[in-house]
Design goal:
Elements lengths: L3 E10 L3 E4 H9 L7 H8 L3 E4 L6 H16 L8 E5 L12 H8 L7 E5 L5 H14 L5 E9 L9 H4 L4 E11 L4 E8 L7 E2 L3 E3 L2 E3 L5 E2 L1 H23 L8 E4 L4 H10 L11 H4 L6 H11 L8 E8 L3 E8 L1
Parallel strand pairs: 4-5, 4-6, 13-14
Antiparallel strand pairs: 1-7, 2-3, 6-7, 8-15, 9-12, 10-11, 14-15
The structure holds oxa(dethia)-CoA.
């Protein structure tokens, strides 16, 4: 009997503080930096983003999104037998202990299940789904919590108008469980380290101090060009692997970075815009959290229904990218 990995619950959380473009522009103007709602909306499609307070940790957002996903799946936290958390903004410097381990404790999971973080920046959730799928298909684990959680506001340079208006904080989670009926149909991941410098946080730590730049750096146009090309290619790769045609896809949930990239992807796939799940306008770019946040929104408002075919696609720093095709 074939074992599949199927999504049995979704959950997400956004910090309470919701900032409009106008509010952000007003705040930036006090430091002599010019931007506008018009520029941000036209170039990116973003109108709002959420920022956490100073005390909240990535693991807090991850834990809350996970609680909601577990509740939706009707699963007790002790039944989780693997935690995979995608983040580029871990609780601890150097990334350890992993945010997954910290979150395991916050969820009160004492069954000693494996827990680790995945670092593939905005592609992290797609990578994590694929890894979870492999563990479940191999018969090793039954219930895997897969989370994307970020506090990007902590690595933004609010003096760099080319990046600080684009990102936000949040977390999304799914429970992937062993199933006799199809769930993850196909997945693919790629990386090309030659492009690592177009989206990065270039600094590091030595002798107890930060060396170099600790803020996110992005060459927006270079990222844009690469994103449009690789997303189309990887979409076809997973469709071919699943033996499916584009018109069999009910919903596309791309990484929510820029509405123009998302619309460009749909056009290349010859899919109608009605099949595109969009939250970038409300959330901004929440990196690894953006896909599970968008998925949870569309599951909870009834657009995504059991049996629907969903394509998720991520692209981000590294350079990394990937896609997965799922039956819900
Ligand atoms: O999450 C990982 C994936 N990330 C992405 O997918 C991001 C990909 N890139 C993008 O989404 C777009 O490239 C951006 C939204 C970042 C920028 O849009 P763009 O159309 O490529 O604009 P640009 O960088 O070419 O900048 C155009 C102009 C520049 O002025 P000049 O040189 O033409 O005078 C910028 O200085 O806009 C200026 N500018 C701004 N103006 C007002 C840049 N940022 C701002 C701003 N407000 N916030």
């Amino acid at each position: 009997m074939t074992i599949y990995a199927k999504i049995t619950g979704t959950g997400s959380v956004l910090p309470e503080r919701r900032i409009s473009n106008d509010e952000l522009a007003k705040e930036m103007a006090t430091r002599g930096i010019e931007t506008s709602d018009e520029w941000i909306v036209t170039r990116s499609g973003i109108s709002f983003r959420h920022f956490t307070d100073d005390k909240t940790k990535t693991s807090d957002l991850a834990a809350e999104a996970s609680r909601r996903a577990l509740q939706a799946a009707g699963l007790d936290a002790q039944q989780v037998d693997l935690i995979i958390l995608a983040t580029s903004t871990p609780d601890c410097l150097g990334g350890f202990p992993s945010t997954a381990c910290i979150m395991q404790e916050k969820l009160g999971i004492t069954n000693q299940c494996a827990a680790f973080d995945i670092q593939a920046v905005c592609s992290g959730f797609v990578y994590a789904v694929s890894v979870a799928d492999k563990f479940i298909r191999a018969g090793m684990y039954k219930n895997v919590l897969v989370i994307g959680a970020e506090i990007f506001s902590r690595i933004l340079d609010f003096n760099d108008r080319g990046t600080c208006v684009l990102f936000g904080d949040g977390a999304g989670a799914v429970v992937l469980s062993a199933s006799e009926t199809p769930g993850v149909l196909a997945s693919a991941q790629h990386a090309d380290g030659r492009h690592r410098s177009i989206l990065c946080v270039p600094g590091n730590v030595a002798n107890g101090a930060i060396q170099g730049q600790a803020f996110l750096h992005m060459d927006g146009q270079a990222v844009f060009k690469l994103a449009v090309t690789v997303l189309d290619k990887v979409a076809h790769e997973v469709l071919d692997a699943a033996g499916m045609q584009t018109d069999q896809v009910d919903w596309v949930i791309p990484h929510q970075a820029n509405i123009r990239i998302m619309q460009g992807t749909m056009k290349k796939l010859a899919l109608p815009m009605e099949k595109l799940i969009v939250t970038v306008d409300q959330h901004g770019n929440t990196s690894a959290a953006s896909i599970p946040l968008a998925m949870d929104a569309a599951v909870r408002d009834g657009r995504i229904k059991p049996g629907h075919t969903v394509m998720i696609e991520g692209v981000g720093g590294g350079f990394t990218w990937g896609a997965a095709l799922l039956t819900m």
